Amino acid sequence: MPFPFITGTAIQPPAQPVELPQPSKAKQLDPAGYRMEQPLVDAVNVAILLSQPLLLTGDPGTGKTQLAYRVAWELGLGEPIRFDTKSTSTARDVLYRYDTLSRFHAAQTNTGSQHNLHYLDYVALGQAIILSRKPEEVMNLLPPGFRHPGPRRSVVLVDEIDKASRDFPNDLLLEVDALQFRIPELNEEVKANPELRPVLILTSNSEQNLPDAFLRRCIYYHIPLPDRHRLAEIVRNRVPGICQGQDNSLLLDSALDMFEEVRKLDLRKKPSTAELLNWLQVLEGYGAKPEEPVKAASDALRNSLSALAKTKEDRPRLMDWVEKTVLASS
Fold it and tell me: Is 157 helix (H, G, I), strand (E, B) or coil?
């Protein structure tokens, strides 16, 4: 079935389920297509050389999270071990989980395992530290079902570290600095193999200031919104149909013009690189032609604005601007 898949006018469902396309995000998320400015490359290499965490800031959608996947891919380390920070996250959550309730129930009812190890599960940084050791070195720390393939280095991503309380990064100081942690439930301590220390990448949306003591232990880099030349390069890698294999296209040029103007509007949430890629992908789906300016595909433009506007206030504001500014000159 051609795009769009829903018309809103059907009076009865189809006899057979509509076949939908495979997720097109795969191309956008492929680490091989992630492009890095040289200063960012330098920051990654400095962090690796000094065995310090890399702290990334930047607007949402500028590629902070995806950098970890690129680094892991380029180092041949598979996918990063990811931890998504929540407002309730504590330092222990980045290392391991312990099912206190189930352990208490087992003790009270004398049912199930009576071994604390059976109620423990390693997470993100804790898992990477365990994996850096030889299996025989940590055999007494491995819960049932934990697969240890042998000593290996991992890339660890702690995403949006500023979502948690200010105490969260402070409580992680020892673990981030020394890459070791204690497990009180087992009365054990484990430290990363110094030859296979995890590569630790932290991201922040700068929603709150991070403690100075924590910042001193990190290599810092701010990812800015790419300039126009870099944006065009990113689009050609991530949404190649917009240019149909050419170095450029009228559609891409005019879309970038519009994107730059949209970012100047008084919007509550300005679109970033991720929104640009999504928007161009939708324009492509609606049949916008690479050899024509974006305003030539007026219906596609109107129908695609939900990829750029992310709040209820921004949607009508953006639609009004498009009608009065972009399409009025058509």
Answer: strand
Task: Return the domain boundaries, the chain.
Answer: 28-222, 226-320
Task: Kindly write down the DSSP assignment for every residue of 289-301, as one continuous string.
Answer: -TTS-GGGSHHHH
pTM: 0.84
Measured between alpha carbons, how far is residue 154 from residues 119, 198, 218 in Å? 24, 5, 18
Per-residue model confidence as pLDDT tens digits over 274-300: 899 999 999 988 889 999 999 999 999
Q: What is the mean pLDDT of residues 57-79?
A: 93
Tokens of 61: 């959608």
Is 28-222 a domain of CATH 3.30.830.10? no
pLDDT reported for residue 245: 65
- Sort strands 96-98 and 120-122 into parallel, antiparallel or unpaired: antiparallel
- Please state at what angle helix 228-238 crosses helix 250-264, rounded to 10 degrees: 120
For residue range 157-196, what is the model confidence (pLDDT) as tens digits? 999 999 998 889 888 888 888 899 999 999 999 999 999 9
The pLDDT value given to residue 2? 61
Q: What is the pLDDT of residue 329?
A: 67
- Confirm if 70 and 144 have CB atoms less than 8 A apart: no
The Cβ of residue 197 has, within 10 Å, a number of other Cβ atoms equal to 18
220-223: which pairs have CB atoms within 8 A and are 24 or more residues apart? 220/43, 220/55, 220/57, 221/39, 221/40, 221/43, 221/54, 221/55, 221/56, 221/57, 222/56, 222/57, 222/58, 223/40, 223/56, 223/57, 223/58, 223/62, 223/63, 223/64, 223/67
